[in-house]
Specification:
Length: 250
Amino acid sequence: MTGIKTITARPAKIGVVVAMWAFGLVLLALFAWATQWRTTASIPTSGSTTSAAQPATAAPGISALTTGLQRDAASALASLTTGHRSDATAALDAAYRLAQVGQENTSGSLKTQYVTTLEAIKSARQALWNGKPGQAEADLTTAGEALDSAANDIQTATDPEAPPQGVWDQYDGAQLLAADGRVIGEVQSIDNPADPTVALHTGTGTGVFGFINLGGRTTTVPLDQVLWGRRQILGNVYAVLTTAPSTAAG
């Protein structure tokens, strides 16, 4: 009668299996990093989506934001008219973020146009959620008209002053937006009172296996290259990078 044989794995074979698993994990992590790096290798500038030269204004930051907002509103309207509601929702969300920052950084008639724009975009988002695309289209038309007026008012406007040093720390961790309203990273800190600069982390990676944060880079820009949204305890705090970064580290 043949007995039952017990097979014991040799240590060498176990080592090979473990090494293969480890090598596979490293390859997966490198692939995720490479994908994220390609996605976030550059930060879009305000004119990156068009070849047309923008007119010179006294408020280049507000001008870049307004141009981005006009494109978002037009994109949302085009998506609605062609039945692409998910694309319209993404464009509306980007426009909503920009409109909030724009309202905080304008005054006079320009602020009036931004208030109208923000309310129209809020109404369009609500209408789309409620399954009323026709109402959303009407609201976006209103927003577009207000933005056309805002574009004219910018010619005599000036960019707002940077926030005072006493509130700098209230922007730590603020969501960083490109001039088209996309979230591209976060504000790390505002530093160097003698010549203020902003440390930004752009292209934050989505963790691998939930605990490895890959991708992204640290960028430093002058304080006046950022427009600052409302400081608040509840809700998101936004900052808009209106130009390409001048210096990068890390």
